[in-house]
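Why does residue order matter? Because the sequence determines the fold. Keep that principle in mind as you read this record.
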Amino acid sequence: MISKNQIKFVKSLQQKKNRITHESFVVESTKNVIEILNSNYEISQLFALKSWIENNKIDNSYSVNEVTEKELQRISSLKNASEVIAVVKIPIRKEMNCNFSGLNIFLEEIKDPGNLGTIIRICDWFGVKNIYCSENAVDVYNPKVVQSTMGSISRVNLYYTNLFELIDKVPKAVNIYGAFMDGENLNDVKIIGDSIIVFGNESNGISKDLESKLTNRITINKKGMAESLNVAVSAAIIINKFCN
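Structure:
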């Protein structure tokens, strides 16, 4: 059974201002919830079907609410609710990692939740641990971002910061690459040492201010007639090159 106050609370977390106020976000679907259960995130409430509760051994320390399909649909942000929804505490923000060892990703003004979620998942696939987003990028705890990560949100560090200022703190030994429509062919890039790849906004690309800080322009070799690539697709292709 779920109360009216619980319904109101869970649905309120679809808005960023309420996630900030309550320091909580929502995770939906069995895979995503299981990933969160196996991570260091703190779950405050679980809402699940009886069948899901019976099929999954849940620690007694969690507050588990048995609900009906109809009740789950009332609190879900999805068109078709899954078997389980978790309310998760937003962790205390970690101190930003500024040694930039290995491969790091800078994302400027990424606005589409699906793109951010997919890029997080891509980074998890390739073992990239740190993503730095501009302060006006989409919120990582947006339900659509969380859903798109398919659990990878628990394994990749994501920081919001002023990229223009941060880039000045990058050690000179770290190579910084910007993804542009023109530049050195990705296939010809010689990757040596620690690196940062900068991806820009879906519509406008990398801003002129940030572009002025970059010395390495790279592009994906184009053979067909498509005007451009989705930023998440571009990230997958470029990160694959840097990780192999």
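The first strand starts at residue 24 and ends at 28.
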